[in-house]
């Protein structure tokens, strides 16, 4: 049985086919439709402009924690409210779009997590996450 499972894994890892499925990140489109600039958005979220720029440039779902997602939605809606655009409010689900048939050029079985030792080092050094100003915190 073990040999069979290993054989299946080897076949999957050697497959040259493109992977299907994508989770598209819609922040840039949502901000553009509402004429929200990077600086204004960063100011409302109280974060650096570079974080917002990274998020806007992402085509696929970036690594952002759940609280930050909620803050992004709230910030967009707050800006819309201040401008009187109540009909342009968004919901959490508007940030992403699931595309089941989109082909991706990567091996689905070849995702590389950072070495455990690197994760521990970043926690000990109090390094900041890439999604803004929150420190890495053990769950």
In short:
It comes from Cyanomargarita calcarea GSE-NOS-MK-12-04C. With 139 residues, this protein is α+β, with helices and mostly antiparallel strands.
Characterization of the model:
The chain is an alpha+beta fold and 139 residues long. The protein has a domain of 88 residues: 434 Repressor (Amino-terminal Domain), CATH 1.10.260. Helix content is 46%, strand content 12%. The chain contains 6 helices and 2 strands; from the N terminus they run αβααααβα. α3 crosses α4. The longest helix is centred in the middle third of the chain and has 18 residues. The chain is elongated, with a radius of gyration of 19 Å. The protein starts with a helix and ends in a 14-residue tail after the last helix. 12% of the residues are buried. The C terminus is likely disordered.
Walk me through the topology.
Elements: H1 2-13, E1 19-25, H2 27-33, H3 38-45, H4 49-57, H5 66-83, E2 96-104, H6 116-125
Antiparallel strand pairs: 1-2
Helix pairs in contact: 3-4
Protein name: HTH cro/C1-type domain-containing protein
Region (Disordered): 118-139
GO molecular function, one term: DNA binding
């Amino acid at each position: 049985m073990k040999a069979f499972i290993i054989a299946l894994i080897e076949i999957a890892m050697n497959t040259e086919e493109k992977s299907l499925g994508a989770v598209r990140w819609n922040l840039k489109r949502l901000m553009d439709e509402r004429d929200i600039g990077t600086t204004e958005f960063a100011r409302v979220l109280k974060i650096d402009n570079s974080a917002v720029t990274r998020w806007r440039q992402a085509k696929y779902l970036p690594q952002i924690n759940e609280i930050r997602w909620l803050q992004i939605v709230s910030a967009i809606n707050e800006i819309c409210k201040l401008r009187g655009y109540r009909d342009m409010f968004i919901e959490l689900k508007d940030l992403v779009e699931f595309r089941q048939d989109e082909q991706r050029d990567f091996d689905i079985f070849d995702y590389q997590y950072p070495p455990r030792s690197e994760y521990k080092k970043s926690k000990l050094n109090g390094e900041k996450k890439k999604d803004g100003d929150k420190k890495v915190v053990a769950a």
